[in-house]
Design brief:
Number of strands: 14
Helix content: 25-40%
Structural class: alpha/beta
Shape: globular
Order of helices and strands: HHEEEEEEEEEHEHEHEHHEHEHHH
Strand content: 15-25%
Number of helices: 11
Largest sheet: 8 strands, mixed
Length: 407
Amino acid sequence: MSRSARPAEDVAQDAVRSVGLIALGAGIAAAAVGTAVVGGFVAAVARAVVTPDRKRAERVPIHAVDPDRMTVTLERTADTELQGRYSLWFGGGTGHMRIGDVLGTTETTVTRRIIAVDAGDPTSARRGRWGGWFYLTPGELDVPVEDVDIPTPNGPSPAWIVRADDPDAPWAVLVHGRGVTRAETIRAVPVFRAAGYSVVLASWRNDGVAPRSSDGRYGLGSTEWEDIDAVLRWLAARRARSVVLMGWSMGGAVVLQTLVRSRFADMVDGIVLESAVVDWHEVLKSQSRVLRLPRPVRKVAQRLLRTPVLHRVVGLEQPVDLRELDMVARADELTVPILILHSDDDGFVPSSASHELARVRPDIVRLEVQTTARHTKLWNHDADWFDARILAWLTEVVQPTDATSAR
């Protein structure tokens, strides 16, 4: 794909070429109809990429719940069969269980221990939503928590603050991924506190907690970074001397864009990425294969996102150019130590871009790989592994120096 901007006429020609064989021989009227149908399909694909889910679907069948034995039997999938600690929502999101060890499996089901039922009656649940959040609020960790509103371009954005005992401690800013909220990031609070950090658990536009943007669409990192920039501005006003940013999944793309765009980036002394989007092309390519989308559909959908005027078809106020979000291509702009945690069986965000970034920037990137932890669930699958990697990196690589202390 050319890295120079292309006019709308080129996009239209590509779209016509992609459906030309279908339309050929069917007459002018049929060609017009075929082009309109395929064009609508392409627009729908592009729109899905940038549109937040209005409702979080519960897709995992629940076969049985035994409240006496505290067990639940679920459909067996690559996620539900993994050992570790997870969450299961049910009842349209009103119910919540914490799930523990695998107790038994069949070819189609898995039975697991229920650690706790936090809300709702699971005995009547028939389907649920499996997730990596384990804690619902940081208060469950028995730590001091403050609720603050951080001024952002769209209005006050709620954040949780967990302060270290040392008022001069460095800060960690935790940035959640797509389709979830700041509760996803609570899992990392203990390891950062163990390393002596105060922590901000941030929200960002269109996540259901922070204010909605005027178009209500994801920028895939190209707009959301402004909300993390606002967190850095808030910290600068409080004389923060050193900041580590950590992002999960799309939150990784947000963090990386913050590093290369924010005027407060000189406060950042390191970045942690968990199952992160380093290059959106690789994500969309992978998902297109899963959905069996023809390559031209993906290519034209990407051009719709980035082309002026045509970007409005998908509801965007500003174009989103995935080439600008490719941090492998922009690797020479990265200037701080980076710890990447990724599982090679991720299932949503391929680890290939993480491996490539580590290859091209071995001077600053430390890559730690799992093989069976799936997407954004490295802590859930093995919390000791997760904590040890982050703590070692903070201690060995990012421990604040006299220079950062003087800021």
